[in-house]
Structures are given as C-alpha cells and as structure tokens.
C-alpha cells in the first residue's frame, strides 16, 4: 500500500512539475497591434503607397532575403501597374543583380555544376522569379538551427491578423519576458508569437537600411514599410480588384435607378 501510494504521489508530482515547466515556457500570444493605419485597407479606395513599397522592397532585399524566399513574385511584377512603381529598366537592373541557377545549355556545356562543385548560375532576367536563399529545405534548416524560414509571398494572407500580425512580430522583439517565463535554447521571446518562443532572431534594427528618400529607418518604420511590400506581394492586383468592385457597385446603383424609373413609367396609373 505504501509503495503504491508512493508511486502515485511521485507520478502526480512529476506531472505537476511538467505542467509547471510548460507554464513557464509557453504563454498564449498577445493580440496583434492595431495602431498602424494601412492605406491599402480602405474599403473602396485602398491603395498602395509606391514610395513605401519601394522602401519595403529594399528592406526585404537587404535584410529578409538572406533567409526568406519570395518565390511567387517575378522581377517583372515590380514594374507592373499596381506594383512598387519601378520602371522596366529598373526591374531589369534589379533582376540582373541576382544569380539564378542555370539550366544545361550551350553556354555551360550542359553542366549543372562547375569544376569546384558549385551550381552554375547566370544573371537574372525580368522573366525570372526571385531565387530562394537556400538550395533546399535541408540547407535552410541547417543554417537556422533546424527551423525552416517560411516563404514570404503569401505570409500576410496566411496569418490571422494579416499585416497587423506580421508588423507585431517584427516589432515584438527585445520585450522583457514575464517573471518565471523561460526562453528556450535557440529561441527568442516575442509576445505576439504563439507560445512566445520564436526561432527567428530579431531581423530588424534601427538603421538596418538607409533609404534614399531620407525616410526614418528605425525598427517601427522599417517594419511598416516591409509589411506593406509583403502585403502587395500577397495580393498584387488589390488595387485593380477594388477599382473593379467600385465600378460594379456604381453600375448596379445606376441600373437599379433605371429599373425603378422604368417601372414607374410602365405601371403609372395602372392601379
């Protein structure tokens, strides 16, 4: 009886200790911040700020692209209507600055790798998509302590809270954890992330980039700009969609008015 009671007590204490450990290493995420006004969230007249999109692209290129892919976006999208507003020449210049894995051809004599085992590449063209920073998932995990950096093409659409959530994550580092909260090994505290232990190190810092237009480059503004760019990446035709929706509503209102006038004219005096 004593042995059974002792085993039961030990098991209970073990479960209690495990539960206590869980409470100090996991907490529910705080609600995303909502103190930023996004020009693209206006119902009918939502639009992207071209200068902001270009600054956001710079943040992605100089900071985020080291770990995160953008595989649904092609370089020609940068110069299309509704996009960041780059000219075609600028988009071509941006593309040429990237190295794209080359397919076997006459130039590389049908080889995928050179004599040193390095993947054969070529300069990017406007038709190419943004290249991934790692050749495969295994290489990505090996470079990030086992974590797999997500592709950012649809990150704003894929996360509840949309731009507010992504903005909150980017600005949520360097907060002081609550008392007794345990930040796990190779993790970072972020109150807006589920569990509050996040694998991604703080990506932004004051002065991470220098904007040519002289815009502020503290963490808050860098985050706001790159979130706007990633929102565009997730919905490149948003402005076109809203303009079409507004035009359809106007058409339906006019049609309703014409139908009502026709009804009055046809049935006037018939009752």
Summarize the structure.
The protein is mostly helical and 271 residues long. The protein contains 8 helices and 4 strands; from the N terminus they run H-H-H-E-E-H-H-H-E-E-H-H. A two-stranded antiparallel sheet has the order 1-2. A two-stranded antiparallel sheet has the order 3-4.
Protein architecture, described:
- The protein is mostly helical and 271 residues long.
- It has a domain of 144 residues: Cytochrome Bc1 Complex, Chain D, domain 2 (Orthogonal Bundle), CATH 1.10.760.10.
- The chain is 41% helix and 4% strand.
- The protein contains 8 helices and 4 strands, in the order αααββαααββαα.
- The strands form 2 sheets. Strands 1-2 form a two-stranded antiparallel sheet. It has a two-stranded antiparallel ribbon with strand order 3-4.
- Helix 2 crosses helix 7 and helix 6 packs antiparallel against helix 7.
- The longest helix is centred in the last third of the chain and has 30 residues.
- The N terminus is likely disordered.
């Amino acid at each position: 009886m004593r042995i059974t009671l002792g085993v039961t007590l030990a098991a209970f204490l073990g479960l209690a200790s495990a539960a206590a450990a869980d409470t100090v290493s996991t907490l529910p995420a705080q609600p995303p911040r909502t103190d930023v006004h996004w020009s693209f969230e206006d119902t009918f007249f939502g639009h992207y700020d071209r200068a902001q999109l270009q600054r956001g692209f710079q943040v992605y290129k100089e900071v985020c692209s080291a770990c995160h892919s953008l595989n649904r976006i092609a370089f020609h999208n940068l110069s299309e209507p509704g996009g960041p507003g780059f000219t075609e020449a600028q988009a071509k210049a941006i593309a040429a600055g990237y190295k794209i894995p080359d397919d076997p051809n006459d130039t590389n004599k049908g080889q995928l790798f050179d004599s040193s085992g390095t993947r054969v590449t070529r300069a990017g063209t406007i038709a190419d998509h943004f290249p991934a920073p790692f050749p495969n998932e295994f290489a990505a995990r090996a470079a990030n302590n086992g974590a797999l950096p997500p592709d950012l093409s649809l990150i704003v659409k894929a996360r509840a809270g949309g731009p507010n959530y992504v903005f909150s994550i980017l600005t949520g580092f360097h907060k002081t954890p609550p008392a007794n909260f345990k930040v796990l090994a190779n993790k970072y505290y972020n109150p807006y992330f589920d569990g509050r232990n996040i694998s991604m190190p703080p990506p932004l810092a004051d002065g991470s980039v220098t904007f040519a237009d002289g815009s502020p480059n503290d963490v808050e503004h860098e985050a706001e700009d790159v979130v706007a760019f990633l929102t565009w990446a997730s919905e490149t035709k948003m402005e076109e969609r809203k303009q079409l929706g507004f035009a359809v509503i106007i058409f339906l209102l006019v049609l309703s008015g014409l139908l009502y006038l026709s009804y009055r004219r046809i049935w006037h005096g018939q009752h």
